[in-house]
Design brief:
alpha+beta; SH3 type barrels; 8-stranded mixed beta sheet; 3-stranded antiparallel beta sheet; 21 strands; 26% strand; binds zinc ion; BAH_dom; BAH_sf; chromatin binding; Znf_FYVE_PHD; BAH domain-containing protein
Length: 437
């Protein structure tokens, strides 16, 4: 890891072992060990959702420990008062997260002399309960509750695990260790934010498992580290579609320097996709056009809207028919009106089906069927959908349909016994019109 902090001071090679259980006579180790992410002055009133921090009288609920750290960090540091009559005990440094070198920030540590005097280390070794080494450049989870609530049962759902982590852990990118002794080891980190913790709140494009890397500096005691954190970086410009994101991921940064004056730009810009110029919301699939020179990623919901719009125009004229049937007549796609979706799927993606040469890559893997269509004129009358299936060789395939939810207009003669009709629709790139089916 290339350290971005000043390299003039040399690091000692390795920190010797940090305290063992048996060393705990030391009073300092009896204080609650929980990280401290933001102090009141730098926190905006963003409606801390941590209900666990409210302690009912007489109960021993866990608390969000707001212990007074041995060091306070001001980040970004206010400009120095050059002519202050009283010399301040402040340590100033400019640093940037190793994973986001453009986000350098000036921060202040108090008491400064003490912090500056400590030896610096790149690694810290912990012996109990397991031998573990943490290093600069690594991402770790930090306990924010002391004690931590009991771990979830092994069969807890992904959502429950995520909720537990959000309530009880923070994530930090390690910058360095400083130690007064083997018993007193501190870690300087750059904090990650859960989307809900952002001063501007969760944005609609934030994924469920997403975190945001900030240049907000924190100093915690090393014992607050809970574990290594598996948080991968999502490079939005990598179109290979081979990126496997881990349990959690980050793609965006928060620049705390901009929070005060230029808050709208404090979050880094994300890549724009689709004809609508929108973001990649990991819970929404996108389909990439394979036409050379186009390559547009199409949002699923934008494709559905286009399909519904087209179907609605035809529907009003009474000319809505299977679009795929029209295009591929004679290739085994002749279906009777009203045939069920499952039958269509079976035929369309059988041995000779379209799936054999799928034209597009589907990005994202979360299921999200159907998109609210309440705002469109065809709401309640037509509903588009994109269905995913597997081809015989196991690759992904998909097809689009529009379902007619009401009888054809003017057909008052069969109001009862109407069954929704489903039509096979073309799915085309919203920019160049290349088929995506
Ligand atoms: Zn779009
Ligand atoms: Zn295209």
């Amino acid at each position: 890891m290339a350290p971005t902090e000043s390299t003039s001071e040399s690091y000692l090679h390795n920190l010797p072992l940090t305290p063992r259980e048996s060393d705990n006579e030391d009073l300092t180790n009896l204080t609650p060990m929980a990280g401290r992410k933001r102090n009141a002055s730098e926190m905006e009133d963003d409606g801390d959702k941590s209900t666990a921090s409210k302690v009912a009288e007489g109960t021993s609920e866990t608390i969000e420990a707001e212990i007074s750290s041995d060091f306070t960090v001001e980040c970004p540091a206010r400009p120095r008062r050059t002519k202050s009559p009283i010399p301040e005990d402040v340590y100033y440094e400019t640093a940037a997260p190793s994973l986001a070198p453009n986000l350098s920030v000036n921060f202040a540590v108090r008491p400064g002399d003490k912090w500056a005097r400590f030896s610096r280390y790149r690694n810290a070794k912990f012996k109990d309960p397991l031998l573990l080494v943490y290093s600069a450049g690594q991402i770790v989870y930090v306990n924010r509750q002391d004690p931590l609530p009991p771990p979830l049962p092994a069969d807890a759902s992904e959502d429950e695990k995520l909720q537990y982590d959000k309530e009880n852990l923070w994530a930090g990118l390690i910058s360095e260790f400083r130690a007064e002794s083997q018993e007193k080891v501190y870690v300087r980190v750059f904090w990650f934010y859960w989307p809900e913790e952002l001063p501007m709140g969760r944005q609609p494009y934030h994924g469920k498992r997403e975190l945001i890397l900030s240049n907000h500096v924190g100093i915690i005691e090393a014992q607050c580290i809970s574990s290594h954190a598996d948080i991968s970086q999502w490079d939005e410009n990598d179109d290979s579609n081979k990126i496997i994101l881990s349990e959690r991921y980050w793609r965006q940064t928060l620049d705390v320097k901009k929070l005060a004056k230029d808050r709208d730009h404090a979050l880094s810009k994300l890549r724009r996709f689709c004809i609508c110029g929108g973001y990649d919301n990991p819970s929404m699939d996108m389909y990439q056009c394979r036409k050379v020179g186009c390559g547009l990623w199409n949002h699923e919901q934008c494709l559905i809207k286009a399909i519904e719009e087209r179907a609605w125009a035809k529907f009003k004229k009474g000319t809505l028919t299977h679009e795929i049937q029209e295009r591929d007549e004679g290739k085994g796609f002749a279906q009777k009106v009203g045939e069920t979706v499952s039958n269509l799927a079976h035929r369309a993606f059988g041995k000779d089906g379209l799936g054999a040469e799928a034209m597009v890559i589907v990005k994202g893997n979360k299921k999200r069927k159907g998109v609210p269509t309440g705002k469109h004129v065809w709401a309640g009358k037509l509903q588009g959908a994109i269905h995913k299936t597997k081809t015989v060789d196991g690759s992904d395939a998909h097809y689009a349909t529009v379902t007619q939810l009401v009888p054809t207009s003017g057909s008052a003669e069969f109001p009862s016994g109407f069954e929704p009709k489903t039509w096979q629709m073309k799915m085309s790139c919203l920019k160049c019109g290349e088929p995506l089916n």
